[in-house]
Amino acid sequence: MIKYTTPFLSKLEDLIAESDYMLRYEKGNFNSGYCLLRDQKIMIVNKFYTTEGKINALLDILKTISLETTRFSEKSQKLYAELSQMEIKI
């Protein structure tokens, strides 16, 4: 299911853009490769990561939070449902 490609990263970015959270790529020395500011609803991912690292960081973030899907497009709802199913299997 997970493809470590730039188009898949774009799909994840679009999914997050449709949510209440804002995604930013910044330089930083994060222990996990990302920082999540829940109160301000900001996700910060290390901009020097490879595509695979960025995807893994975003998937880790999506596992820890729940997004409101009411504003999602049909494609984003389908992707979010698939990612949620993968969480259950892990």
Q: Secondary-structure map with pairings?
A:
Elements: H1 6-17, E1 22-26, E2 34-37, E3 42-46, H2 51-64, H3 74-89
Parallel strand pairs: 1-3
Antiparallel strand pairs: 2-3
Helix pairs in contact: 1-2, 1-3
Index terms:
90 residues; globular; 16% strand; 3 helices; alpha+beta; three-stranded mixed beta sheet
Structure in a nutshell:
By secondary structure, the protein is of the alpha+beta class. The protein has 3 helices and 3 strands, in the order H-E-E-E-H-H. Helix 1 runs parallel beside helix 2 (51-64) and helix 1 (6-17) packs across helix 3.
Describe the structure.
The chain has 90 residues and is an alpha+beta fold. The chain has one domain. 47% of the residues lie in helices and 16% in strands. The protein contains three helices and three strands, in the order H-E-E-E-H-H. Strands 1-3-2 form a three-stranded mixed beta sheet. Strand 2 and strand 3 form a beta hairpin. The mean pLDDT is 89.
